[in-house]
Amino acid sequence: MKHVIEAVCTGTARPFNGAETSAIMKRPREGRVQVFTDGLAPDEQADRRVHGGPEMALHLYPLDHHDWWRGEIGDHPALDEPGGFGSNLAVRGLTEDMVHIGDRFQLGSAVIEVSQPRQPCWKIEHRFGSKGMVARIVKTGRSGWYFRVIETGEVAAGDSLELITRGASDWSVARVFAALLGGKATGTELSELAELAPLALNWRKKAAAKRA
């Protein structure tokens, strides 16, 4: 499984909603970009309590979903931007049902691993000026996902994102998202997720809390 990276995107924290700031508006970078344990350099997250860090080092929101959103909310300039949803990597042909927790990919000279789905928040709706987007993400599972960095390196547009090791083959990003945010998990599934080592700790805690 090999996919071309159409753009590598980073952002800076900017005024977003009154006193709030956000770095959701990612812009394509030229040339090679360093991939560190905490993500691309430079790339910012406005609220480090809920964004960024080693378990959310890189975000990928499939470009395939941009066309779907046009049908839902109409045309919007951000849908023409590869980092419109805060994505660091612009890739087509790779969606939540195709990747699994713990899948490892070669990214340029770096190695990265799928760590968790992205939990949608109000900033997406504010970014696009459209209420109800979070509910539609929860309903359809168009969440995107995060990677942790296993080996640091460099990446540039035109490089490949290539699967090198399959992780938890029973647990696609789509299934984890549906189980823990869509409320569709059985007790057995919650127990499995609570013990799924490659899954980010905060998601394992969600599973344990729901199981209790």
Automatic annotation (TrEMBL):
> MOSC domain location, by residue?
25-164
**Signal peptide range in chain numbering:** none
Look up the domain of life of the source: Bacteria
Q: Which InterPro entries match?
A: Benzoxazolinone_Detox_Enz, MoCF_Sase_C, Pyrv_Knase-like_insert_dom_sf, Tri_helical_YiiM-like
Pfam families noted in UniProt: MOSC, YiiM_3-alpha
Query: What protein am I looking at?
Result: MOSC domain-containing protein
Species source reads Erythrobacter fulvus
Phylogenetic placement of the source organism: Bacteria, Pseudomonadati, Pseudomonadota, Alphaproteobacteria, Sphingomonadales
